[in-house]
Amino acid sequence: MSLSTLDRHRLPDNATLRDGWWQAYRNVRRHSLNLAAPLSPEDQCIQSMADASPTKWHLAHTSWFFEALILVPLCPGYRVFDDHYHYLFNSYYEALGPRHPRPQRGLLTRPAHAEILAYRQHVDDAMARHLDACPAANWPQTASLLELGLHHEQQHQELILTDILHAFACNPLLPAYDTHFGPELALTIQPAPALSWLDHPGGLVQIGHGGDGFAFDNETPRHPVWLQPFQIANRLVTCGEFLAFINDDGYQRPTLWLSDGWAQVQAEGWQAPTYWLSPDDPRAAAAEWMQFGLTGVRPLQLNAPVRNLSFHEACAYAEWAGARLPTEFEWEAACHLSGFQQATGVAWQWTRSGYDPYPGFRPLAGAAGEYNGKFMVGQMVLRGGSLATPAGHARPTYRNFFPPPARWQFTGLRLAR
């Protein structure tokens, strides 16, 4: 069973249902360990910037989530693995108490890597017992939090990859995470579809999640939005197209940039997307543009979609191209059009929409209510899904969000006009 097919509302008196949830839990938890497997204990302890976290912390925090939100409040007699972990591995849940400062997660050489793995096993064993013995009266709350926790861990699975890529990019050796990482290699051999423009008539469209499947609270409630007629590109902008922007002095022309973006260019000396290596970069050791990724340093693939762009770079490119970024509502309405390609599995796609609550938005009850709503300021919405997004995790209504300067994520752009 997949996360999307499991029924969180049914009572747990059905052995098949219990087994389905347990299998889904095991699959997600196992995938996190598989992603960490290519990394040494030293790799898993490093934190390269305040916005990133060590792999070891991700493995512990996702276990803490199940412990703090399910096992402690809903499983009588549960014994916590270590009382200190509640402080060490809380992320931002004010309702659950104080926490270790986020920028200092890389200082946690202790607990050791082996202890974190033992913590995960402790939580998994307790979750198995709880799912087997959960009273029918507690099942709806348990199942709802379990489902949220699995999707939460899938988000951290993507962060394991993006965060370690940033850390490895800070290493002069530019080590590869995995030279055989399939999702990235696939993008180097797929030809770019011919660029075309898809017409959308506009009008009143329904936006947001509806139905019985899982969605985060920020995808609700479903509501009507009026759109003017527009066109949207059938695919993402490629590296070759973005290289033309660079060669046309795109990073030297302030008229193409939003004010904050131009300030960022000047302050940080941006000349190309992050992880691109110019022909004169000594780390590239080549007379051509190269790109650093999870598979290591490889020649820049001109037909592959450009990724690791900030919102500011996406906007500047769109201005240079005589187009614009779509709003998140245009993106959601258009992703069902025939010919709309690369919706997911490549790069998250910046939109021109600020991360605001939908009309009538209400966060979840309890500590889980801090999951999304309190971040609805100063961020931009991205749609789609990336090469690092776990299979089955993305959906058309999914609202990812990051601040405009962020570019360590697998973020690209699709044009609209």
Describe this structure in words.
With 417 residues, the chain is of the alpha+beta class. 34% of the residues lie in helices and 11% in strands. The protein has ten helices and eleven strands. The model has no long low-confidence stretch (mean pLDDT 94).
Globally, the shape reads globular
- CATH domain fold name of the largest domain: paralog of FGE (formylglycine-generating enzyme)
- In sequence order, what are the helices and strands, one letter per element? HHHHHHEEEEHHEEEHHEEEE
Please state roughly what percent of the residues sit in beta strands, choosing from under 5%, 5-15%, 15-25%, 25-35%, 35-45% or over 45%: 5-15%
Mean pLDDT: 94
Return residue spans where pLDDT drops below 50 for at least 5 consecutive residues. Answer: none
Give the name of the CATH architecture of the largest domain: Alpha-Beta Complex
Largest sheet descriptor: 4 strands, mixed
* The CATH class of the largest domain: Alpha Beta
Overall strand count: 11
Q: What structural category arises from helix and sheet content?
A: alpha+beta
How far from one another are the termini?
41 Å
Strand order of the largest sheet: 10-9-8-11
> Tally the helices: what do you get?
10
Q: From the alpha-carbon coordinates, what is the Rg to the nearest angstrom? A: 22 Å
- CATH homologous superfamily grouping of the largest domain: paralog of FGE (formylglycine-generating enzyme)
Residue share in helices? 25-40%
Total discrete domains: 2
